[in-house]
From TrEMBL:
Designated name of the protein: 2-oxoadipate dioxygenase/decarboxylase
Record EC number: 1.13.11.93
Homology family: Belongs to the 2-oxoadipate dioxygenase/decarboxylase family.
Gene Ontology MF, one: dioxygenase activity
Species whose genome carries this gene: Aureliella helgolandensis
C-alpha cells in the first residue's frame, strides 16, 4: 500500500531524525567511520531499518495514542512482543513502502510498578484527560513534529527521575526523553562486504571508539539465526531538572543510541543473486530475546561502563 501522503511522512521522519542527530553525536561519528572506510558516500546511502519510540502505558497515552500518527500515514501494526521482566509491551509497524523504516513502539506497564512509582508518574500525567493525538491535525506535518518534540508534562525533578530509575530505567528514560527518537537503525546487510555483517562492522566501530551494548553479548541473534542486532551504548545528554526551588539543576542522563541490524536472506530465496534481493526476501519483524537486551542500551549498567569523552 503506498503512503497516503508521502510528503507528510517524509516531513515527520525528517524532523525526528534531525533532532536525533543533534542529540546523538555518535550518529555523525558512525557516518564518518563508514565514509572513511568507503562503505558509503553520504548518509543517504544508508537504509534505515527501523526507528523506535518509548511510551507510558497510562490512560490517553501509550501505544494506542502514538500509533495513530503512523497508522494515519499508512503504517500497519504487525506482531506484539512482551517483556514481563521489564514490564514492557511492544508492537512493530510495517511501513507503507519499502524505503521507509519499520517502527517499533514499546509501552511501560505502569500499573505493575510500585505504588510510589505509580504516584510519581501520575503526578506528571494526571492532567492529561484526553488523548492529545486526537487534538492534532494529523495531515499537518509541523503540528505533528511539534507534538513529538514538546513535553506533555512539567520538567521532571532529579529526585523523581532517580526514584523512577531505581525501579525502572525505562520509566526514567521516558519521563525525561519522551517521544524523542530512541534510535535509528543501520541496515548492515546492505553495506559492501565484508562489512555487511554485524560481527565485522562491530569490530570496525569498536576500533574507532564506538562503545557497544554488551548485555547478553555484543551480537544479539534470533533463534532462527536470521536476525542479528547490536547497538551503541546511549550517549549522555546534559539534562535540565527542576531543583524544587524554582531553579534548574543539570545532570548527565542517558539519551538515545544507534542500532545495527543484519537481516539474513530467508532459506526460500537463498538462490537469488545478491542484486535481486529486496526486503521481502529477508527476515522480517523483530525478536523478543534480542529486543530485551537492546532496551538496556540506555540503562546505567551500560552507560556507566563508558569513559567520558573529552
Ligand atoms: C527498543 C529496544 C528493542 C529492537 O530492535 O528489538 C529494539 C528500545 O530500546 O526502546 O529496538
Ligand atoms: Ni531496534
Amino acid at each position: 500500500m503506498p503512503p497516503t501522503n508521502p510528503q507528510l511522512l517524509d516531513d515527520i521522519l525528517h524532523g525526528l531524525l534531525r533532532r536525533y542527530g543533534t542529540r546523538v553525536p555518535d550518529v555523525e561519528r558512525v557516518m564518518e567511520i563508514l565514509r572513511s572506510a568507503s562503505l558509503i558516500k553520504s548518509a543517504e546511502d544508508i537504509e534505515n531499518d527501523h526507528i523506535a519510540f518509548r511510551t507510558l502505558g497510562v490512560p490517553h497515552l501509550g501505544i494506542q495514542s502514538l500509533e495513530k500518527i503512523f497508522l494515519h500515514v499508512g503504517y500497519q501494526r504487525r506482531d506484539a512482543y512482551t517483556f514481563p521482566h521489564k514490564k514492557l509491551d511492544a508492537f512493530w509497524y510495517a511501513p507503507p513502502a519499502e524505503h521507509y523504516p519499520r517502527i517499533f513502539i514499546s509501552e511501560l506497564r505502569v500499573e505493575q510498578l510500585s505504588p510510589a512509582s505509580q504516584t510519581t508518574i501520575a503526578s506528571y500525567v494526571c492532567q492529561i484527560d484526553s488523548d492529545p493525538v486526537d487534538q492534532l491535525d494529523l495531515n499537518n506535518a509541523s503540528q505533528v513534529d511539534n507534538f513529538l518534540h514538546t513535553s506533555l508534562w512539567r520538567r521532571p525533578s532529579w529526585n523523581d527521575y532517580e526514584q523512577l530509575r531505581q525501579e525502572s530505567e525505562y520509566a526514567a528514560w521516558v519521563i525525561y526523553n519522551r517521544y524523542y527518537l530512541n534510535h535509528f537503525t543501520i541496515s548492515v546487510h546492505n553495506l559492501p562486504p565484508p562489512y555487511n555483517s554485524v560481527a565485522t562492522l562491530n569490530r570496525l566501530l569498536q576500533q574507532h571508539g564506538i562503545s557497544l551494548n554488551d548485555s547478553g553479548g555484543i551480537v544479539k541473534q534470533s533463534p532462527d539465526g536470521l536476525l542479528l542486532q547490536s547497538s551503541s551504548v546511549a550517549e549522555m545528554v546534559q539534562a535540565e531538572f527542576d531543583d524544587g526551588q524554582g531553579g534548574i539543576e543539570t545532570h548527565p542522563i542517558a539519551g538515545s543510541y544507534i542500532e545495527f541490524a543484519e537481516r539474513r536472506v530467508l532459506p526460500a530465496f537463498q538462490h537469488l543473486p545478491a542484486t535481486d534481493l529486496r526486503r521481502a526476501h529477508r527476515r522480517e519483524g523483530f525478536e523478543a530475546g534480542n529486543a530485551d537486551k537492546i532496551f538496556e542500551s540506555t540503562y546505567t549498567e551500560q552507560t556507566h561502563r563508558i569513559p567520558k569523552r573529552k
